[in-house]
Amino acid sequence: MDTVRRMRLQTLREKIVQDVHVEYILDYLISKDVLSEDEMERIKGEKTRKDQTRHLLDILPKKNIDAFEHFVQALKGPYPWLSEQLEAEGPESYQIEEKSFFDSLLLGGLPQSPPHNVERKEKVEEVRQHLHSLKRGHYVVLHGMTGSGKSCLAAAALDNKQLVIEKFKGAVYWIGVGDINTERSGDLLCHMTDLMEKLSHHPEVELKRQVQSSTSINGARESLRRYFTSDALREGLLILDDVSSPEVIEAFDVGCKILVTTKDSWVMKSVEGRQCLVKVSEGFLEQESLCLMAKCVGVDISQLPPQAKKIHKLCKGNATG
């Protein structure tokens, strides 16, 4: 189940516990394979009606998205007011989605935009389009010189609720790998272990899926593969920022969707045919340069003097020129 639906259940949990008698909906949930016979017996084994409902609500978030839809359908007959609230797209639902989106970025370790960041709208949209069509086991690669803004571009592209929640099911994980010295295998293994630690805390990863840290790169790679085949993480996105070695790509080639930033496109040689290369130029467009100048001096673009455009042309759009 995705984060938004899980949070809807959490928000309405007390109302559901107060109103629902599980005996009216269990048969339907069993018929739709939402619950197993064993789970049904454990629910019925609870002493009170409310405890039975609480037990059901503890189980549902660990199921897939279909479980939520079947639960809503089961409620429509006996409890239509609850099914309507779970399906509602009003202000409360919007707040749930906003909170879910923010939590996804926070838990995934995505960086905040710098104070004077300028959104390169055309490039951001190009990257988002590639991410929308990204398949499991494939890569979107942002390639450009040091200082060209690859990391900012990656973060800006993912600052999109629809993309993160609907396409990647709220599972996006940012790993900075620029400090890895591949001559020391411990560096690479440490970053792989850090990723496993993040994945293990995903609220929808079943305990049986959680794996112990490995003492070898091969073992860690297999563990990561197991995580990214779980229902919760199957559509997730891994971001490898500042890759400088093909060994990093080989280690993290675990079958998930991956966004890479790098100044050396040759590091992708081991996954040739599975990558989409996006060239990131160093210079800004004129409007982007003007936006940056305006932010730096704290005025609106319209208040900039005529010399601002001349500065852009002189520096050829290079903010450090």
TrEMBL record:
GO terms for molecular function: ADP binding. SUPFAM superfamilies: DEATH domain, P-loop containing nucleoside triphosphate hydrolases. GO terms for biological process: apoptotic process; regulation of apoptotic process. GO terms for cellular component: cytosol. Residues 1-90 form the CARD domain. It comes from the Eukaryota. It comes from Cryptotermes secundus. This is CARD domain-containing protein.
